[in-house]
Every structure is written in structure tokens, then in C-alpha cells.
Amino acid sequence: MVLVDGSSYLYRAFHALPDLRTSRGEPTGAIRGVIAMLRRLHEDGNPEYFAVVFDAPGKTFRDEWYPQYKANPPPMSPDLAQQIAHLHELIRASGWPLLKRLRTRSRLRRSKRLHRSRRKRMTFARRTKSSQRP
């Protein structure tokens, strides 16, 4: 199983490659770099399972645990931001699963409560069925 940190690949490609652009002036360097790295990784490793994971926008549970976590990051370059949606489309078009959501602590709690309530309903449903048998 291979899970690729797509956000890391994106920044790496953007800063490593020259400023590549289309004939209309749209930036494409990060897209080209990420797709090339993903293809190489997929072809060389031939993993049974492969997915690309991107950081979700906004705060995560890490911000709750450590308030200085990425407290003063520089703003994302507009040229880089412009390439993200196109990159996501290309990753999906290549047949690779793309994951974009990191759960916050409150979402994890809500998910656990939901799971517990479903489990209780399943237990109740099983008891009800077995009690109806002669």
C-alpha cells in the first residue's frame, strides 16, 4: 500500500521546476512535476493499493493541540493555488484515489458517537430478531 503526501509533492514540484506555463500563460510546472513523480512511483513500485492524500484547507486537530502549529505560514503563491484543482482532476483521471479531508478532533468524536449508536441499534435489532423466534 502506498499513500502519497500530495501536498508535499505539490510544493516540492512547484519550487523545484522552472516556471512552466501554457500558451495562455497559465502555470503548469507543479502539475507536470507531481504527475511525473506519481507515475514514476506507481510504475516502479507497482503497488497493489495506491492513493494520493492532500491536506484539507483550514484548521485541524493539530491546531488545537499546539496553537503555534503553522502559526505564521507565508501565503500560498497564486500560481501554485491556480494549479491545485487541475492537479486533482488529473489524479482522478489517472485512476488514482484522491483523499482531501483530514478529520478534526470534533469530527472524530462525532464519528465515534455515530459508530457507537449504529452498533447499539445493530445489537438491539439482533436481540429483537432472536426474541421473535419460537
Q: Could you provide a short overview of the structure?
A:
This protein is mainly α and 134 residues long. Helices cover 57% and strands 7% of the residues. The protein has helices at residues 6-16, 29-45, 61-65, 78-93, 105-132; strands at residues 2-5, 50-53, 98-99.
For this entry, give a set of tags.
7% strand, three-stranded parallel β-sheet, 134 residues, single chain, mainly alpha, 57% helix
Secondary-structure-based class equals mainly alpha
Number of strands: 3
Mean model confidence by pLDDT: 80
Helical percentage: 55-70%
Q: How are helices and strands ordered from N to C? A: EHHEHHEH
The description of the largest β-sheet is: 3 strands, parallel
Q: Please indicate the percent range of residues in DSSP E strands (runs of 2 or more).
A: 5-15%
- Global geometry: globular
Distance between the termini: 49 Å
Low-confidence stretches: 118-134
Number of helices: 5
Placed side by side, the strands forming the largest sheet appear as 1-2-3
